[in-house]
Amino acid sequence: MKEKNDYNKKSNHGKTKENKDNCIDIRMCTKEKIENNKCKNCGEEASYFSSENNGWLCENCRSIEEKLDKLADKMEKKLSERVYSFDLNELINCLSKDEIYNIARNLGVNKISGFNKEKLIEKLLEEYKGLVEKRLLVFEEERYKILKSYVDSKGVKIFEDIDEEEADKSVYFIQQGILFPTAKDGISIFLMPEIVQELIRENNNIEYRRVIKANSEILNIVRGMNKAYGILRLKDAKEIIERYSNIENCEVEKLIREAGYYYNEYREEGIFIINNEIDDFEELLKDIDKETDLKYAMIPKEELLNMIEENWVYNSKAAKDFYKEFTNMFSVDKDMLIAMIEDLIFDVQENEPKDSVDQMLELINIENEDAKFVACNMMNKFVKKIRLWKYKGSSTNDIKSNLVSLKENKYIGRNDPCSCGSGKKYKKCCGKGEKVINIYK
């Protein structure tokens, strides 16, 4: 969660007043001044002036910048030693043994732990084409689009012309030996070997596009589930995916695993898929196990797909309702409010709703008690609508609603329409595998 000063820079340090629209203004009116003897990066006392950054630096930040400069020089020298070639053999041979070993392992070459560099190269070149062909079958439209763009640009992209998001994700392709960083005339570039270009061209057909389209749908659902549920067993993930998409003849586990490396949004821990925002997943599992007989929330497909978008936190219905209500009462910086929404959504995963709200109120530091009371009520209303990982994607409101429904003894027969709204019979949907009439809500 953000520090108090991060919000105070945008919130007028809690000084509230009524404006002519009867809103309470909590925006900052003045900016903090930074003195010359303060470090530009961390604000500590500075002793060095950096002409390159046009600012003062403390001893620690200066040391970090020197290390980064040395690393950049080292990388530049390393790239200059690599070849500019589209021949896989030449590209592989200029790599270190460790780099070759990592590419081989990432592609799936087995039994190579005792190989010397020469033997590693021989083994990798022997199996490379077949392994890349298999890897292409678990790609989705996004990865194919990036690779196709290299074919369209004759196998070369200048590093500075690549946007930040693609550059970050290109690391995945480098680790697979599908792209190779090098330099030409002092310019850093990424190269695609001719053998990979040929495979991309060969797969530029309707049949392959159907494969990656189906993969895209499954992976988008998985990524949405990762945001909604936080943690779930792989076998449960497959069962949930079946509610939304046909996974017949599809290697779901391979799809999920490879996408995890590429998107870096989740990881595998034994039999579990875990959101990378979760540090102590074992503690979360204990919380989940406390809720006996709790099933994964049935979430509309459209909502899951919305969760993979960049602004998914803000674009959820609960967040939009909160945003509208809050801005009707308070005159507040949009970025500040979106940051508050994001922090509440993630903080409430680890803390009780009341604690999350109290902490947020302390951070934005509203002094006017009436305004504080109104903001508190709005936040409490919002956090109770947030899908919680410990409740398998249900919100606090959902849990309370389910308890009320259980007390009212609302039964669903196996042949009745499922209450989740899927349109299927209960026995073929949420009641699949059960042999008795079950209470759903």
UniProtKB/TrEMBL annotation:
InterPro entries: SEC_C_motif (IPR004027). SUPFAM superfamilies: Sec-C motif. This is Zinc chelation protein SecC.
